[in-house]
């Protein structure tokens, strides 16, 4: 049975180091340019250099997100950015649309390419299409069930890696514009501060708040509950998923130090116990205590389980 990779998003250099020290095999980061994941602390070029050095010294990998949708006049700078990333010796880039994919292949033909979940891969035909275009890994949409992932694995070549999110905040919607800021400024709200925090609520679900975040990349809406699949980790492995990812771009290193070790232990125990899996109450309790937000299994199971 294949060996599972544990990956983690990190929003700062401190979070990157914490993820690696706590057992992550790889870390996703947003760079200074073209990375949508700038909602936490930006990774400067100096941070990225230090993070890559730290990761490689520990035999771990660094992936850089390129999730913004470039306009025509962005490609000159984008090509220069790619060449700089290559000099830094990153392990892969994560793209989300054809133009960036084509450009990466032209500029860095040997670079590993992952396809972001924002590209919405729902079936094996789409996964195979992207693989034929040069994608090495597909991040599966969170709306699929584990059974559908298994079907995708059975109908795609082994050379295509499949990745799934298993823990953390769930992005519901993304816009390339700063919607709240633009609206308030259009109404003459001179005292508007970008530091203010907002949440979405639905009239019949009072008390369930969906966080809204804005930065220069745009507006992102998150679900009211965090994903938590620790009880069902073995099902992802048996379905043929090759990488399990923890979403932590908005969390600090303390959160990562609580969450990553639990998933590291769970994966290691599965292989060490002859592929028998046992999620303990202690694991669930540690994950529950890592955040004030409640947990859910999302769309992965036949019936969604929401944890109190």
TrEMBL record:
Protein name: U32 family peptidase
Keywords: Hydrolase, Protease
Signal peptide start-end: none
InterPro entries to which the protein is assigned, alphabetical: Peptidase_U32 (IPR001539), RNA/ubiquinone_mod_enzymes (IPR051454)
Family affiliation: Belongs to the peptidase U32 family.
Pfam families tied to this protein: Peptidase_U32 (PF01136)
């Amino acid at each position: 049975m294949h060996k599972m990779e544990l990956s983690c998003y990190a929003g700062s250099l401190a979070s990157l180091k914490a993820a690696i020290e706590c057992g992550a095999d790889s870390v996703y980061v947003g760079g200074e340019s073209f990375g949508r994941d700038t909602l936490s602390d930006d990774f400067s070029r100096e941070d990225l250099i230090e993070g890559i050095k730290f990761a490689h010294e520990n035999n771990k990998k660094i992936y850089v997100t390129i999730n913004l949708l470039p306009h025509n006049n962005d490609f000159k700078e984008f090509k220069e950015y790619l060449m700089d990333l290559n000099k830094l010796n990153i392990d892969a880039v994560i793209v989300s649309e054809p133009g960036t994919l084509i450009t990466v292949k032209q500029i860095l033909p040997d670079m590993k390419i992952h396809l972001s979940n924002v590209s919405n891969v729902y079936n094996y035909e789409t996964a195979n299409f992207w693989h034929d275009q040069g994608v090495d890994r597909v991040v599966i949409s969170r709306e699929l069930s584990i059974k559908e992932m298994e079907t995708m694995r059975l109908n795609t070549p082994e050379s295509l890696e499949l990745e799934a999110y298993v823990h953390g905040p769930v992005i519901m919607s993304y816009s390339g514009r700063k919607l709240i800021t633009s609206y308030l400024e259009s109404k003459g709200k001179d005292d508007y501060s970008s530091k203010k925090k907002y949440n979405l609520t639905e009239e019949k679900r009072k008390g369930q708040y969906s966080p809204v975040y804005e930065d220069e990349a745009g507006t992102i809406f998150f679900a009211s509950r965090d994903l938590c699949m620790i009880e069902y980790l073995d099902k992802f492995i048996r379905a043929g998923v090759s990488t399990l990812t923890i979403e932590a771009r908005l969390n600090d290193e303390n959160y990562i130090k609580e969450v990553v070790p639990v998933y590291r232990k769970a994966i290691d125990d599965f292989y060490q116990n002859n592929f028998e899996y046992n999620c303990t109450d202690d694991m669930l309790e540690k994950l529950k205590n890592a955040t004030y937000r409640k947990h859910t299994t999302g769309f992965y199971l036949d019936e969604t389980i929401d944890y109190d």
